[in-house]
Design a protein that fits this description.
Layout (H helix, E strand, L loop, with lengths): L1 H31 L16 H10 L1 H4 L3 H17 L1 E4 L6 H15 L12 E5 L3 E2 L6 E2 L1 E4 L4 E5 H9 L7 H16 L3 H18 L21 H14 L1 H7 L1 H10 L6
Parallel strand pairs: 1-2, 2-6
Antiparallel strand pairs: 3-4, 5-6
Helix pairs in contact: 2-5, 4-5, 5-7, 7-8, 7-9, 8-11, 10-11
Length: about 270
């Protein structure tokens, strides 16, 4: 009797999952252009007070969140640190490093339900710029798909966090590359929204009528127009570092980016 009841409940749960994700969410996605839900954590993991203070000191994004959403943010930081390997090259990995890197990633992906990306499984940190094994050139950071690694110069990572109005943030830049690759390959609801909105964003890069002329507009640095991948990373740096200027100078592009990452202003 107990076994039969268990089987009945199991099938009931499976049926409910099929209804939610196979029928309701696609309809919701079509109507509202966002996933049915983002955050649901039955056993939320909190940060210690000293860890939380690091977020307060370095992330205005976190400080603006409502108390409940701060809990979601902290939970994701904890989960990120538990799921990815941190390796130091001639540098000792500290808890502060882990919190700052995780916080940067969580900020970028906070509007996405499936935020843990399997295109990388390790984060390698050098004290400063390093000789890349990919092209034997000194880099400040990179995404290496073959090694499934994100690599940072810690000196430059900190500089990007410490200077909040220059629209240069190494952590955001490299994590944006990973997110881009992930959403091109994935078919989860957040990736679908990202891909559709990215096609609109891309018009500002490739369409001769809509393309922003960097010689007439000093807001986006010229490096944004190296290629489509760099364009995305650069505009996401601008989106988080100087959102008010971005929104006032390029309101339509701003809204496409907000849709792309399912960003909701507090």
């Amino acid at each position: 009797m107990i076994i039969q009841l268990f089987i009945f409940l199991l099938f009931g749960v499976l049926f409910l999952v099929v209804i939610i994700f196979g029928i309701l969410e696609p309809i919701y996605l079509l109507l509202f252009n966002k996933p049915l839900y983002i955050h649901w954590y039955p056993f939320s993991k909190k940060l210690k007070s000293n860890q939380r203070q690091i977020l307060v000191n370095y992330f205005p994004f976190y400080c603006r969140l409502a108390p409940k959403r701060k809990m979601y943010f902290e939970h994701r930081v904890n989960v990120f640190i538990a799921n990815y390997q941190f390796t130091g090259k001639e540098i000792f990995i500290t808890e502060d490093m882990q919190i700052l890197i995780a916080g940067t990633y969580v900020m970028l992906t906070f509007g996405m339900r499936n935020y843990l990306i399997r295109l990388f499984d390790k984060i390698i940190i050098y004290p400063s710029s390093y000789l890349s094994t990919v092209n034997q050139v000194y880099h400040k950071g990179e995404f290496n798909p073959k090694m499934k690694a994100i690599v940072f110069s810690w000196e430059d990572f900190l500089l990007g966090l410490g200077t909040s109005n220059d629209n240069i943030n190494l952590g955001l830049h490299e994590f944006s590359h990973v997110l881009h690759f992930h959403c091109l390959k994935s078919n989860d609801s957040s990736a679908i929204v990202f891909f559709d909105a990215f096609n609109e964003v891309l018009k500002y890069y490739s369409d001769p009528v809509l393309k922003i002329d960097p010689t007439k507009n000093n807001y986006f640095r010229v490096y944004a127009f190296e290629n489509q991948f760099e364009f995305l990373s650069v505009i996401l740096e601008h989106f988080f570092e100087t959102p008010r200027i971005f929104k006032s100078s390029h309101p339509e592009l701003y809204e496409h980016v907000a849709t792309m990452i399912n960003f909701k202003e507090e």
